[in-house]
Amino acid sequence: MKLIKLLLPILVILCACNEKNEFDDINNKVNVPTVLQERDPNYPLILSKTKEKSRSGMATGTTLSHDEYLGRSFHLDNYPYDDEINLGYAVVDFSKASEKGYIISHGINRSVTNYFAFSDYDHYLEKSKITNTVTSGFKINLGFFSFGHKNTMTEVFESATLTNKTQVGGEANIYIQSKVHELQYSSNIRKDIILYYLNDIFKDEVYNTPTSEFYKNYGGFVLKKFITGGRATALYYGQVKESYLFESTETIMNESIDAGIKYKDKGKKDSIDFSADLEFGWSNNDGNSTEYSEKFTSLNYSIQTVGGIPVYPAFPAPKDLFETKIDLSSWLSSLSDPANHALIRIYEEGLVPISDFILERNLSDRINKCIQGFNPGNLCEPEICILYPEVYWGRNILLPVYLHTRNNEYIFLENGQFSDNDISRNAEIFRLSTKYSKIFKTRIVTISEESVSSSFDTDYDGAKIEDCKVFQANDGTIYLLDIENKQGYSIHDDYLLDTYAIRDYVNSLPTINVNMESLFDYDILAL
To answer: Which end of the chain has fewer CB atoms at under 10 Å, N or C?
Structure first.
């Protein structure tokens, strides 16, 4: 590997003179990388390569049993979110988890009715408690949940903006609950799943495709606990007359929703009466609707059913609540057949962030940022970067060294130091580039602080590879572990040794055997 001729004047000047203009290439290119070493062409640059294998594990469809929904990825793209249409690909290997005893299901057989009104979409989040479906402790942008709901409301009711004090929305759900399905989960089980029970295709995808592409395909969550049966969801949108604004618009809407639902389950506590009547709204000859209708300029509603016979598989055009009665008694009756049951409700904390199933901190962070709405961008060529200070004074000025990864992260490796003069600075650049040229046959460049600060991810302190030992797991994953400092890197496919041009150096490192469970004691970054 040859070093660029730029380095030669450094040696000359160190011995002969103190003329700064010999370093114009470095001094004058603060915002443009200056190449100190070119990439060795003997190392193929492959940024992504998924394994050739059957993609049957990525398929979804009606052939799955309800239990097999557990451990699959879940999107929050379509509202209501408690719907099989949001179901994604396998994350947890269902067969292995089931054999281990982690899959649980049992009957509950009860009906639940709830409804709420909201005068704006912030109140919707509060009243619906939809954010409670995600495991506690995970920080999520609340707008992420309201976005899908708002889209559905504006699609069903074209002007459902809720920007006027007279406007009010509402929602009612009648759940005919049959069974609870659960993936047993704890901090201890999580470790077992990460090490032994992840789906092979999931692992291939998460480590070998760009994070934005992975997130688009898989979504941000994994289904852990849900209920099957049938659900009728009614959405409401109305405008209250100004003469009634002395009352709460949400109170007026709640009263109207409650009065407009006719459902009496005569079953016992642990059973459901499938022969009961179930109706929404009023017909023209229902005189008792007047006390509610007189408070509204308009109040429309639309109903979707999930499970049972497909009466309203999608929200139809809205109807006037006070002039249109919808009878769902036959739909309720059809739910007596368990073959007609569907996913209808996600349990509280029934969704786990998909990042929770990933060992490496940087990869987990990237997926979490996708969930928050950020795009991590495209893959890029890895390189070693020496951060060039734009202004410096005093003694012991730092020259940070970073590994710029294929995922556009800057992993901090070490700080070089120099005194307040160009000779000292250039000598330190020469020392650092010489050191890392023996490890990485990638490009080595000097860059500006601006380049690093604009990166998607910079907050990572990485292990010094020269201090690492090599551990190869049974699945072929290579771990470079700094035993003393409990830091390390993971390399999940052999081609990445060439991508980072470190194959020869890694092959020269000492090997070690460690207990797989001990990997959780390390701060591991994925390359």
So the answer is: N
Instruction: List pLDDT tens digits, range 241-250.
Output: 998 888 899 9
Residue 317 has a CB neighbour count (10 Å cut-off) of 8
State the residue for tokens 């699959």: 72
Contact 125, 131 (CB under 8 A): yes
Sign of CA dihedral 67, 69, 70, 76: negative
Cis ω before 80 (30° cut-off from 0): yes
| Cα–Cα nearest to 207, from 502, 391, 478 | 478
pLDDT exceeding 70 applies to what percent of the chain?
84
Structure tokens at 455: 């990166």
Nearest alpha carbon to residue 421 among 129, 14, 87: 14
DSSP structural state of residue 462: P
pLDDT digits over 278-300, tens only? 999 987 666 678 888 999 999 99
Phi, psi of 225 (to 5 degrees): -155, 130
Beta strands in 389-425 (DSSP E): 397-404, 409-418
Report the pLDDT value the prediction gives residue 338, as an integer from 0 to 100.
95
Determine what percent of the chain is predicted with pLDDT higher than 90: 66
Average pLDDT, the chain: 86
User: What angle, 0 to 180 degrees and rounded to 10, lies between the N-to-C axes of helices 200-208 and 211-218?
Assistant: 140
pLDDT, tens only, 131-173: 778 776 566 666 666 677 888 888 999 877 888 899 999 999 9
353: β partners: 221
168 bridge partner residues? 238
d(CA 267, CA 207): 51
How far is the C-alpha of 294 from the C-alpha of 290, rounded, in Å?
6
- DSSP 8-state class, residue 337: S
Question: Residue 418 forms beta bridges with which residues?
Answer: 397
With CA atoms as reference, report the closest residue to 107 among 168, 42, 54, 181: 181
Residue 186, C-beta contacts closer than 8 angstroms, at least 6 positions apart: none
* pLDDT 10s digits, 115-140: 999 998 888 888 888 777 877 656 66
- Residue 23 CA to residue 15 CA, distance in Å, equals 15
Residue pair 27/6 in contact by the 8 Å Cβ criterion: no
* C-alpha to C-alpha distance for 424 and 446, rounded to whole angstroms: 16
Q: How far apart are CA 453 and CA 124, in angstroms?
A: 37
**Cα separations in angstroms, 119 against 14, 163, 240, 259, 465:** 73, 9, 11, 19, 57
Q: Is 51 exposed, middle or buried (0-12, 13-18, 19+ CB in 10 A)?
A: exposed
The distance in angstroms from the start CA to the end CA of the chain is 23
**What residues are paired with 237 via a beta bridge?**
169, 300
Q: Measured between alpha carbons, how far is 272 from 265 in angstroms, rounded to an integer?
A: 7
Distances (CA, A) of 267 to 30, 248, 261: 76, 35, 18
Angle subtended by helix axes 211-218 and 361-371, to nearest 10: 60
